[in-house]
Amino acid sequence: MALLEIRDVVKKFGDFTAVNHVSLSIEAGEFFTLLGPSGCGKTTLLRMLAGFEKPDHGQIILDGQDMAHVPPEKRPVHTVFQNYALFPHMTVAQNIAFPLKMEQRPEAEIKAMVQEALEDVRLQQFATRFPHELSGGQRQRVAIARALVSRPRLLLLDEPLSALDAKLREQMQIELITLQKEVGVTFVYVTHDQGEALALSHRIAVMNKGKVEQLDVPETIYSYPKNRFVADFIGQCNLLDATVTEIGAERMKIEIAGVGIAEAQKVEGIEIGTKGALSLRPEKIKLGVTLPADDADEVHFKGQVHDCLYLGDVTIYIIELENGTLVETMLPNSDPGKAKFFDDNDLVELAWRFDAGHFLPV
Amino acid sequence: MAHSKHTTKWLISGPPLLYLLIFFAIPSLIMAFAAFRFPGDYGGLMPLVSTSDAGASTWLINQNNWREFLTLENFLRFVEDKVYVELFIKSFWYAGLTTLVCLVMAYPLAWLIARSARKTRDLLVLLVILPFWSNFLIRVYAWMIILGPQSYFSSTLNKVLAVFGIEPVSLLFSQFAVIVGLVYVHLPFMVLPLYANLEKHDMTLLDAAQDLGANAWQRFWKVTWPLSLPGVWAGVALVFIPALGMFAIPDLLGGTNSMMVGNLIKQQFLDSRDWPFGSVLSIMLTLTVLLLAAIASWAGSRHKKKGKK
Ligand SMILES: Nc1ncnc2c1ncn2[C@@H]1O[C@H](COP(=O)(O)OP(=O)(O)OP(=O)(O)O)[C@@H](O)[C@H]1O
Ligand SMILES: [Mg+2]
């Protein structure tokens, strides 16, 4: 049985539905992420897990126990709040000791556990400081140590890194993964940053408008987005309007509007004439002045460079296909001193393997 | 550049400083000096200077005869008769009780105001300060009527007491009436600083405390209360100090035994016309309050240091 079962949970504010029939199950020890744009109901779902909001419908079952009538202070669930919510009148050590004091553990034990928690987040020398005497990253670590010190069954993190700068965020991501492995506590992590979600999670639930659009491991979410929303939201993705023209055993043919016929992987539940879009990640597209056309598994098109964006490690080339559709491609600048392979208006050829893309019926 | 900054600073702080100097510092010094002098034959102070009919003035006091003009006797009188110290203790007790009752009553009220919707909040704050719009004495007289034997309040209370076979009580002109009056007058001074403090509290701290296992009681004592202490101290100071010096309320609502130090000081200056002793009483009152404040701040800083350790 899973550690946490969310069964058909609905939460309404007035006549606005913030969480709409969500069902999830999360395994013990998992690093689970709720990913979605602002306002999609991530915080609301998290607050229901913590007990601050009551679901209007459905059940939340933790360790086989229905949480419906368990108040937040009695749940073995701790939260790392977005603004950290450290107690300003307590030192770092006192903040971390707080949940242990609430459990009325003996003083000596509290002291030892606080010491250990401080070591876990490398803050030993800050024990006697007050929160306002710490940097953002240090405060973050105190908040995590405080929430983890009594080893809850579930740790909820609501966009914990969003207030940090990019460099520190990356460092904290690594620390979070290490810490989660070390303590073995199940994490439910909320973010609207897809890169962060892909980097950290064992599994991701992509949410939109109160619903879970797709739930899977990061690789699948990224490579095989289930619908236009997920494809668009996760990373850069080309969506080429297409219609199914021929269906084979494993492959099918689609007509990309105004460009031509392309082979693609067969998708279940479609028929000839089904309209949709081919989703294609920029890095899966090959680009060259001329490309050998001898591989039967590859799809070939011609285009013209429309724009180049130099990003340092890679350069993004926006290619205009014959009918005017713009396709984004990407090449690493791995050759020494090389910043660009093509210039604006160069004529180029594009190719991708038939299974690089993914047909999404509308 | 630096010069003009300096000038601006003095231009801004100069007038209030001057005001405090003229109306606070100098009178305080005059009073402190008066405490060492003898009362005059017809009240006031024994003159140090004589003015002739022609208007020329000459000093009466000089190096040899200053003992006839300056004395410690006023202070000795204060220490020797335990009546005065007892009155001080009683006044501190009244003021302390008033402060405590105000705190207990004002805290939930301030909390409620701070937690209510913004629109109702402004209305409630207005209601708290509304009594200031009518005269202080009129409000105290109103209490004389409310607590008086003929009032509905008193008669209803006594009827209820009679049911339980308890003798009727007289509310007016008692210590009870004094405390009621003191609490009534000072309550807004406790509510406002508490409200100003509680209103700024970050509600997510309470969520965090609850999330980490604190029940409602613990959330109050571990989070809300310690964070509200600055507001509590401000309220305590704003209630305790004026309550300590109050004379109108004991005069109007109190009986013969509910005199406070304020009444005694007033008596010395206006009735007995013994200015030097009145000054001694005032100075002792000020010194005691300062001493208490010093002890409080010392205890506070010690507590903080302990927290840091
Ligand atoms: N207490 C509330 N009363 C009314 N509406 C609310 C309340 N809390 C949240 N909502 C609404 O529910 C929706 C979901 O809110 P929620 O805070 O869960 O979003 P989120 O996914 O966490 O967004 P963000 O990434 O911006 O934090 C929003 O449209 C919000 O306006
Ligand atoms: Mg949120």
Automatic annotation (TrEMBL), chain A:
InterPro entries: AAA+_ATPase, ABC_SmlMolc_Importer, ABC_transporter-like_ATP-bd, ABC_transporter-like_CS, Mo/tungstate-bd_C_term_dom, P-loop_NTPase, PotA-like, Transp-assoc_OB_typ2. Gene3D superfamilies: 2.40.50.100, P-loop containing nucleotide triphosphate hydrolases (3.40.50.300). It is an enzyme of class 7 (translocase). It holds the Pfam family ABC_tran. It catalyses: ATP + H2O + polyamine-[polyamine-binding protein]Side 1 = ADP + phosphate + polyamineSide 2 + [polyamine-binding protein]Side 1. It comes from the Bacteria. GO terms for cellular component: ATP-binding cassette (ABC) transporter complex. Residues 4-234 form the ABC transporter domain. Its EC number is 7.6.2.11. PANTHER family: SPERMIDINE/PUTRESCINE IMPORT ATP-BINDING PROTEIN POTA, SPERMIDINE_PUTRESCINE IMPORT ATP-BINDING PROTEIN POTA. The complex is composed of two ATP-binding proteins (PotA), two transmembrane proteins (PotB and PotC) and a solute-binding protein (PotD). Part of the ABC transporter complex PotABCD involved in spermidine/putrescine import. Responsible for energy coupling to the transport system. NCBIfam families: potA (TIGR01187). Belongs to the ABC transporter superfamily. Spermidine/putrescine importer (TC 3.A.1.11.1) family. This is Spermidine/putrescine import ATP-binding protein PotA. It comes from Formivibrio citricus.
Automatic annotation (TrEMBL), chain B:
InterPro entries: MetI-like, MetI-like_sf. It holds the Pfam family BPD_transp_1. One of its GO terms (biological process) is transmembrane transport. Residues 88-296 form the ABC transmembrane type-1 domain. Gene3D superfamilies: MetI-like. PROSITE patterns: ABC_TM1. The chain crosses the membrane at residues 17-38, 92-114, 123-146, 172-196, 227-249, 277-299. It is a multi-pass membrane protein. GO terms for cellular component: plasma membrane. SUPFAM superfamilies: MetI-like. It is found in: Cell membrane. Keywords: Cell membrane, Membrane, Transmembrane, Transmembrane helix, Transport. Belongs to the binding-protein-dependent transport system permease family. CysTW subfamily. This is Spermidine/putrescine transport system permease protein. The lineage of its organism: Bacteria, Pseudomonadati, Pseudomonadota, Betaproteobacteria, Neisseriales.
